[in-house]
Amino acid sequence: MSDVAAQTTKQNPLQYITDQLKELRAGGVAPRLRVLEGEQKPVCIFDGREVINLASNNYLGLTTHKALRKAALDAVKRYGAGAGAVRTIAGTMKIHMELEEQIAAFKNVEACVVFQSGFTANAGTVSAVLGKEDLIISDELNHASIIDGARLSRATIKVFKHKDGKDCERILQEHAGFPGKKLIITDGVFSMDGDIAPLPELCDLAEKYNCIMMVDDAHASGVLGRGGAGRSTISGVTGACTSRWERSAKPSARWVATFAARAIWSIFFTCGRGPFFFRLRIRRRRRRLARRRLRCWIRRKAKSW
Ligand SMILES: Cc1ncc(COP(=O)(O)O)c(C=O)c1O
User: Fold this and answer.
1) Is 3.40.640.10 the CATH classification of the domain at 65-304?
2) pTM reported for the whole predicted model
3) Which end of the chain is more exposed for a tag (fewer CB within 10 A), N or C?
């Protein structure tokens, strides 16, 4: 073995992780997963201690609701414990479609796409709709998953002061000649402090400057707005904005994160833009080959039947 090869085999390529963890532990800031025993309840047992749970997203108590437990058990009995494939291949079931229709009706929008989490909803929508030639104007206290979604799109990102419509307008004016699409994006209810975005003002700006408007309604759906349908159903918002879309996750405690939208958007995602429809493009030659193999296999099987 050469000297270089011997040196390479001796080094642990993951040593840096051990070092970083040691550093974090020494500083007392190493992340640790808290372990819940039993159900998500207002008072529950975490790491063997009884605590008041102020960190859960189960605002409406839906994870432990009698009717939902029963529906989940019935569904497992009827359909099994999973979809068996991602939605874009063979995992879209009739019950997914029914759920999306019902959520769209609840949100009073044309259509809706259900994602696995709030994070994937933001990553899957922002990066699907915008590209590197576009502009995102984002509240400085937006949730981290909005920031990640924005980065994934590779669009130019400009940040306005928290809940400050005037600062948002300043950025819009400075970018009046920007050639790409523009998106204003905000939490409906902010996740850290629970304060509320000035949606009517932002929606008016979106209309005035011809922007797409996105509201992350994770903390408002089921809680605020008309019939609990979210912040964006309050007067002055619905109808004020031509291109409104929103997502919601929390009240159902992460069973679903939905992207409620105009029908056109949901078609857009499921037709091949962004992480919802991750790279599924198979080269034409490979597709032909796969089809030929499949035909041979069917012929062979047919003979043996
Ligand atoms: C406003 C907001 N959006 C998105 C998310 C991400 O949702 P999830 O935790 O389901 O990925 C959160 C989570 O805390 C949130 O508060």
Assistant:
1) yes
2) 0.77
3) C
